[in-house]
Specification:
Layout (H helix, E strand, L loop, with lengths): L9 H13 L23 H19 L1
Length: 65
């Protein structure tokens, strides 16, 4: 999500360009201004996709054993 992946630029644009414009690795890392909380949400499908990506190595290991 910190660089474009070929033509699939949605994660890069929504995470790196929008989110990290406000939340950096300094004192702004935590939510300070209440109006900034609207830059945190993800699209409805982002959660299931991230879970599936995270599960993939474990599913492959389970299938191989």
């Amino acid at each position: 999500m910190h660089r474009p992946l070929g033509k699939f630029t949605y994660p890069f644009k929504s995470h790196a360009l929008v989110h990290h414009r406000i939340f950096k690795s300094d004192h702004t890392y935590h939510l300070i201004n209440e109006e900034d909380k609207w830059t945190i949400p993800m699209a409805w499908w982002n959660g299931p996709v991230l879970i599936a990506i995270g599960m993939t190595p474990f599913l492959l290991a389970a299938l191989m054993s």
